[in-house]
Specification:
Layout: H1 6-22, H2 27-42, H3 49-65, H4 71-83, H5 87-100, H6 105-118, H7 124-134, H8 141-154, H9 158-171, H10 176-189, H11 192-206, H12 214-218, H13 221-225, H14 228-245
Length: 250
């Protein structure tokens, strides 16, 4: 329940691993550990993406094979699939989780992202608005702000995007994607100084990786998983903004 950071994820994962070492058949520990591993990947704070996802996939597979069909298990399966860029498969898992528990807000948020990846961008903000109405003081509210800001950015509503992305950054300053998207929005609005500052912070938080060039971003699994419609929107807005902010092509 601590704010998301490399340290908080590492601490949670260590504790869930310890629980599993004490009781290897604990379905609760399997699901919680899989959720933490995939969550770390999803917010860009994993230093071992492939290993984290392989472990998470194995754990949630074991939990579901044990006939544990609760809402949380399907939620985590959806999270693992989304982290693997398999949103078409993640959508029914999120929907199954929500059918069992309509107040499982992480599933609503994950479903929103998958709708965006699939190109159903007009469905995204209504889903996130449900989460805001149901839990207006939620500790994960920054992630919801970020998704709303991303939709506005992709639809070229730059001023609205900045408002929501600034709220996301304030709520979750350790998440690199809050800063990178804000860098793109600032650059598109003409504020190149603030854009460069946010891009530098995103790079500091994520370390060596996809934020070093446009080519590396396009080489990522995320880019390849986008529908043609969503990819075109990212190219025209977020990537165009990052170029203006100073991100090199290669």
């Amino acid at each position: 329940m601590k704010p998301d950071s490399r340290d908080s994820y590492a601490e949670a994962i260590s504790l869930f691993e310890h629980a599993l070492s004490l009781d290897p058949r604990s379905v609760g520990a399997q699901i919680s550990l899989a959720g933490s591993l995939s969550g770390r990947v999803l917010i860009g704070l994993s230093d071992s993406r492939a290993a984290d996802l392989a472990r998470a996939d194995e754990l949630i597979g074991r939990a579901l094979a044990a006939s544990h069909r609760g809402a949380f298990a399907h939620l985590v399966k959806g999270q693992v699939l989304r982290a693997q860029r398999r949103c078409d498969e993640a959508i029914p898992e999120y929907e199954t989780a929500l059918a069992s528990n309509p107040n499982l807000l992480v599933a609503l948020y994950g479903l929103g992202w998958c709708k965006l990846y699939a190109g159903s961008i007009e469905e995204v903000i209504p889903l996130v608005e449900q989460t805001l109405r149901r839990s207006p003081r939620d500790r994960q509210i920054g992630t919801w702000y970020f998704l709303i800001g991303t939709v506005h950015l992709l639809q070229s509503r730059t001023d609205e995007a900045i408002v929501w992305l600034e709220k996301a950054r304030s709520a979750a300053p350790a998440k690199p994607f809050n800063h990178s998207s804000l860098a793109a929005a600032y650059a598109l609005s003409g504020d190149l100084e603030r854009a460069a500052t946010e891009l530098a912070e995103a790079r500091r938080l994520i370390g060596e990786g996809s934020f070093s060039s446009i080519a590396k971003m396009k080489a990522s699994g995320l880019w390849r998983s986008l529908s043609p419609k969503t990819r075109a929107l990212f190219e025209a807005t977020e990537l165009a903004g990052l170029r203006k902010a100073g991100m090199p092509e290669e």
